[in-house]
User: Fold this.
Amino acid sequence: MGRRQFKEELAWASSDRGGGEEIFTNYPIIVALDSRHSKAEEARHTALGHTNSNRRVFAAFAVRNRLIRVISCREMTDVMKKKLKEVPNFNNEDEEREFWGGHDSTDYVDWNRAQVATFPNLKTSTKTISLRLPVWMLDNLKVAANNRDVPYQSLIKMFLKERLENEIKT
Assistant:
């Protein structure tokens, strides 16, 4: 499966929390099972990754019915502690979100033991927009999409993404 197809198949249980959604579509991502906070009905995980603007972030999340629910997401620091602190037990997601919002994950998680993970069945959040294009432009987009064997709306998204990535780099 190609990277673009992977990104188009992602799904989210909640709105983005500080880049938490973006880290699942940018590689590399490092994910570790948080066995202490996992429950029989729901596994909890922690992840290290980066946003589209290359901010390095830490996220705590759960997977529910093949949907990722980002509980907390915050910017990473470069400080690595030798002795890990014990992660407290949380009564609910709000407590966990508040905790991770104010603590450095590297004090609590040994990221050297984390493994690279992929989430092939998820879909990114999208919003429907109305876009007026000249007929000739739409016709040319449809021809180009047909040549690439992709839907023309997907081709438009690919073009926009490539252009945005170039704009961000400059």
About this structure: The helical segments are 3-8, 93-102, 135-148, 152-169. The beta strands are 30-33, 44-50, 56-64, 67-75, 115-116.
